[in-house]
Automatic annotation (TrEMBL):
This is ABC transmembrane type-1 domain-containing protein. Its main location: membrane. Gene3D superfamilies: ABC transporter type 1, transmembrane domain (1.20.1560.10). Signal peptide: none annotated. It comes from the Eukaryota. SUPFAM superfamilies: ABC transporter transmembrane region. One of its GO terms (biological process) is oligopeptide export from mitochondrion. Residues 76-288 form the ABC transmembrane type-1 domain. One of its GO terms (cellular component) is mitochondrial inner membrane. One of its GO terms (molecular function) is ABC-type oligopeptide transporter activity. It is a multi-pass membrane protein.
Length: 305
């Protein structure tokens, strides 16, 4: 009688364990479905194939227009960058007039004019501080949020790709991981830090040109004669650097994929005692992006000289 009771308890325990395992499996499946449904509900999923992969490529402006959700904040940040860029030529004009007041012979008129332009300098400093703060905060915040959203979209798209998509060498796990992390970080820097500085430079340049034309248009036109030469060399340098940047990006993705393959297969590596082989293979993969980066930095250093 006691043995039958123990057998019943054992059967109940086994059934309970099996039920718990089945429940856990369905719970895990439900969690996976929740993740996938999140991307289906909130993010556009693009299932690519060989014919449509080329058509999914888009420019940075189109990508921002379709994927950025904080366009208003980003626009205000760009407008603040324009104000910050216009501060430099305005400050130059005010400072020139402030220094010019020292040539006024009348002491009372000198004090009056200098105080007015000194207040202008304080006002410009306040506007520059506020615009610089808004530019930095809004652009960095919008770009950071955009980068996170791109990572979500990329991960959601990867979840929906067919198995054949992952079998291609260009879609290896290490390369996809590098793209989701590194490329989105580069895109964030591009639209956050770089775009703001470009706008500041362009507005400052435009303001300086206008002021130079007002002061002395003859000498300004003489200076314009060098612009085509500078533009030609800048375009040539940009073309060469872009080629090196693309080569370094591909080489870095290949090295990251080698690292991922070694770590993901670490048990096989240990069992076959091929640690040195994998280490040498990864070291060789790192040499190519290092050499390309060295050449690129050499060209950049020549530009600085």
């Amino acid at each position: 009688m006691l043995d039958n009771s123990n057998d019943d308890n054992t059967v109940d325990m086994i059934q309970g364990t099996a039920t718990a395992a089945i429940s856990k499996r369905y719970a895990d499946k439900s969690a996976i479905n929740d993740i996938i449904s999140y991307y289906e509900d909130n993010i556009e999923i693009l299932v690519t194939d060989e014919l449509s992969s080329a058509s999914n490529k888009m420019s940075i402006f189109e990508l921002i227009r379709k994927t950025m959700d904080k366009k208003v904040s980003y626009g205000v940040g760009l407008f603040s960058a324009m104000i910050d860029g216009g501060i430099n030529p305005i400050f130059s004009v005010v400072l020139a007039n402030l220094l010019n007041t020292y040539s006024i012979p009348d002491r009372n008129e000198l004090l009056k004019s200098s105080r007015i332009f000194a207040l202008y300098v304080l006002l410009i400093a306040a506007v520059s501080g506020v615009s610089g703060l808004l530019k930095y905060f809004l652009l960095e915040r919008a770009s950071e949020r955009w980068a996170v959203r791109l990572r979500h979209m990329g991960f959601g798209n990867a979840l929906r790709q067919p198995q054949s998509w992952f079998d291609k060498s260009e879609n290896a796990t290490g390369k996809v991981t590098t793209i989701l992390i590194s490329d989105t970080e580069s895109a964030k820097i591009l639209i956050g830090h770089f775009a703001g500085n470009v706008i500041i430079g362009l507005v400052s340049l435009l303001g300086g040109i206008i002021w130079a034309l007002i002061v002395g248009w003859q000498l300004t036109l003489v200076g314009f004669g060098l612009i085509p030469v500078l533009f030609l060399f800048s375009e040539l340098e940009g073309y060469v650097l872009q080629k090196y940047e693309l080569k370094q990006k591909i080489a870095t993705e290949t090295a990251a994929n080698e690292f991922y393959q070694g770590i993901s297969s670490i048990r096989t590596v240990y069992s076959l005692s091929i640690e040195n082989i994998m280490e040498n293979k990864f070291h060789e993969a790192l040499q190519k992006p290092f050499l390309i980066g060295s050449l690129k930095e050499f060209m950049i250093s020549k530009k600085c000289l």
